[in-house]
């Protein structure tokens, strides 16, 4: 009982507070009540909007009950020209135990009121220029308002979320704004995303390599879509790609597979190129996602990637995909999986500019990635471009990939699709092994690095430039050896990647260009790029 | 608690209740599908129910021996316990779709598959036996019910049934008798947002009433007595033409998403003021087989952050102030309606309670998960309120059990068609309707 009285006194106080508040608000509204009434009038007559009491209360931050009395005043003042909808609530005469609520127009009101017995309440529901045929139209304006309120960022407390204008308060309701709602801005992505942990859709926190790759895959797709995505900002690309990631992941995976298959089944191509990269699968899994997205930013990205490779994911994407970046030892396969090959990475291979990029196979997966986006940017691709492209392709992936590639890679896992993008870069010709200059175009660029792995295959990796430097050296040495075979290998590798357009020509080109990637691949965009792709950094 | 009216605004405090979530048995996260068949769930059901019936048999007919089907001897009276199987002539068989030529338009399916020639068979692990006699009406029973039968084997090899023992109402926890104040739980179902027949204004009026916007202060005081809201299935309805296996264009995607968005905004308004549970139904974006798993919280970005919002399974079981509620979105009763008959839907509801099984036709004709070691639909504790959603009209009944159990059975009508929601008073288990009409003409 003591408790009760304590509660009671609290209630009293609370009520008093409320009362005073309402008093104050009343006084305040008196002054601008007229303004509000005028506004209502203009809304109803000029804009033909339905003004319901809830809409009014949310719009002018009044309690519902105040809004109701305001509408009442309005109708008393201006009521003649407008239609009013009343709401009658209470118990019906013939069903005294059941609660009933009915809407009624002003003409219906007397009859409807007769149906109710005892204590019932009537107040104005809405005011409008004319009563619509479909009662639901009365609800529209209010719903649009509610939609806008719901679209505000989740952390904002507004009158929709705070339940503040009603007649019942409930202090036990708590709303968690940390992101439980998950800002799912891009619904489609979330699900597919492989191992993306963070809730926030856009932030791909460092995923695992795999996830990165998955992401990259998405990214690649996105890259396509977003070709303009912040170039070097893999991050941005990534984010966008992230969204699409989920979307793309599967394709990427496919790509990885595709690579394999390309490698395995592209008999003619293989023969042509002389090599069947076996590891693509693994690699693809890892790298795959060379994010076409990265491609978009390829131009910028490559350097970006290169820098990133440095392991400091500083470039953009670090945040999102920690693509294995930094882990130099990761095998990086430039897997340019353009998920669904819809993208036909036409670009990449072709980019004449990529030659230089190609020279840096390591990091420059960009070329691959950027395929879709960058096909046009071919010229840029040259070395730098290639590397960039490569990077861009997998903005996200690349980061990690880069690192990986630096470390390992035997892979020609670069997906063929990527190759396309890379194509342009390919010109860079990783096969050269000399990966020369290209990669370092930007501080951290993805460059393609080609080397011969233990099985005698030429492996082109996308590595970040920074890391590349070291890697490159090794690669260089390796590649030099490999170059000779490398060319073929590269060709093969590239072929694996799905170079639809390139075909034999590419192979030949690649071979030829292996060395000349940097400079000269421009002539034959597609092919040139491939070389650059395989070029070792 | 009413505030004294010092000035015009009176804000009521919503009443509070204790809530317990009891859906763990319906969740299937821990289950692993290893390719098992449905026999295991039937076995679990028979095993548990038989133990129960064996314990009841001595009090029912103490002088009779209890045996297995295989142990039947001609002419000897005994009690056998097993699962009923109803052989139905008209029951659709999936093989029919492949056996004959398929016409382009599906044949009109009869709503009810009963036929005068239907017969019942009792089955246990040892064997099955055809049932005869008039004590057991095939019109009432369905496949999957476990009963004890008293009778004897005839020379024709049939088992002539003289009497039937059902499991009866399960034991019930005592209802707290000291609830002084009126507290209401609002049940609604069949919002069908997104369908042509749904009237969003009607639902908005309901939301406004529950949250305390509607009406004058006295009415708002009544609304403040609502402590919980349950939405029992079929909250959205997606345009079927879009779901045809093709990829959706982006504008179609947003059309598809609209109903969910709308329900989320409405739930947001409700959750901001009162505790709300949402259950999946037949048309909702949840899995098909019972027990349906909770709707994903990502579908409700606006409502999920609230601690008052809960996404629940179908069937759903919970406690409010120690009053036990159990309910489904209607699939179990609708399926009974197809394979048996009764004067009113409440008869089906009562039967499931007396058979102690929420959905006896699962997995025979009702989609169900192949549980291996348990049957989650067995009703172990008698609820105080047992509701079924998405019915054609509102109905309710109070039934009494043999041990003093008292259960309120409620059929919740489809809100999109009737504009009626049901409010149950926790103090005395009485219920009344809340109806909303938007006819302005």
From TrEMBL, chain A:
Q: Does the keyword Nucleus apply?
A: yes
Biased composition, Basic and acidic residues: where in the chain? 278-312, 319-328, 371-406, 468-485
Q: Where is the composition biased (Polar residues)?
A: 197-239
Q: Where in the cell is it found?
A: Nucleus
User: Where does the record place Low complexity bias?
Assistant: 501-511
From the UniProt entry, list the residue stretches annotated as the region Disordered: 1-24, 197-417, 422-441, 468-537
The UniProt keywords, alphabetically, are: DNA replication, Nucleus
Q: Which Pfam families match?
A: CDC27
- The protein's predominant localisation is nucleus
Top-level taxon of origin:
Eukaryota
Designated name of the protein: DNA polymerase delta subunit 3
From TrEMBL, chain B:
Q: Where in the cell is it found?
A: Nucleus
In which broad location class does this protein mainly occur, judging by the first location in its UniProt entry? nucleus
The UniProt keywords, alphabetically, are: DNA replication, Nucleus
Q: Highest taxon of the source? A: Eukaryota
User: By its UniProt entry, which InterPro entries does this protein fall under?
Assistant: DNA_pol_a/d/e_bsu, DNA_pol_D_N, DNA_pol_delta/II_ssu, PolD2_C
Describe the location of the DNA polymerase alpha/delta/epsilon subunit B domain by residue ranges: 185-394
- Give the coiled coil ranges: none
What Pfam families does its record include? DNA_pol_D_N, DNA_pol_E_B
Domain DNA polymerase delta subunit OB-fold, first and last residues per copy: 37-164
Q: Which family does it belong to?
A: Belongs to the DNA polymerase delta/II small subunit family.
Entry protein name: DNA polymerase delta small subunit-like isoform X2
